[in-house]
Structures are given as structure tokens and as C-alpha cells.
Amino acid sequence: MGVLITLSRWIDALTEGVGRLVVWLVLLVALLSAGNAIMRYGFSYSSNAYLEAQWYMFSLIFLLGGAYALKHNAHVRIDLVFGRLSQRTQAWIDIIGTVLFLLPMAIGVIYLSWDWAKGSFLGREMSPDVGGLPRWPIKLALPLGFALLALQGLSELIKRIAYLTGHLQMTAEEQEVVE
Question: Domain Tripartite ATP-independent periplasmic transporters DctQ component, which positions (predicted)?
């Protein structure tokens, strides 16, 4: 179990690092959005590249931030019921949900999007709009984001199993497993 807990910590560190970068994207997309609005309405200037960069960053926030949200237990759940259950029952629900829903869905999206993203990369796909950006980087972000989500799901699975087997303890407030 020690090797798996070490793997879980490595995945958590990766997720934390990516999450910290994604937080900066929120500021950048807000600044870019404001800049686009000022340029469009103040100076009658618009750029497809700026508009596409704006939605690329917005997409990256969600695609790359999903694993971070999962790690910090910030994802949506039905707390009305879940919060009233024992920690052991909550751990079992997390395990079942991860194995039956999260991991198959994430792996399925990776599988279904990989050829699409790879084809875009190999063809160096560009935006059809004048002055637009390359499309392949944002298409590669789809399988990457779901790969990060699957990895974090694996980490959460390891931590819940370690909790149930007595290798780790779980705090009551945050539902995070600690040693």
C-alpha cells in the first residue's frame, strides 16, 4: 500500500501544480475579455485571434481545473444526503462512484477524443476564421484534461481504499485523507 500512497501523493502534487497554473488563467481570461471589450467598443477594433484566445483559456480553465476541483472536494455532490453518512460509508460511495462512473467516463472521453486531437495536431489544423489561432492545441487539451481527471480519480481511489484499510485517516471537515 505504501507504493500506492506514494503514487497518490505524486498525482496530488501534479494536480496541485496544474491547478495553480489554471488559477492564473482565470486572471488572464478576465483581462483579455476586458481588453477585447475595450478595443471593440472603444476603438472599433476586433480580432478573431483575441476572441479565440479568450475561449481557449476559458476551455482550459475547465478542462485542466477538473482534477484540481476533484482533489479539493469542490465538485458537485448531493451533500444533503452524503454529509449525513458516516465517513466509511462516504468512502465506499466515493470508491463506487469513481470505479463505476468517473474512471470509465474519463477513459472513454480520452479514447474517443484522442484520434480527433491527434489528427488535428498532425494536420496542424488552423481556425477557419481570418486571423484565427491554431485549433490543434485546444483539441489536445481535451484528452489531456480528462487524463488529469482520471489520474486524480485514481489518487482519490487509492486514498479512500487506504482509509478503509487503516493506512490513512480522513479528516471530518474536508473529506481529505491525511496520514
Answer: 31-161
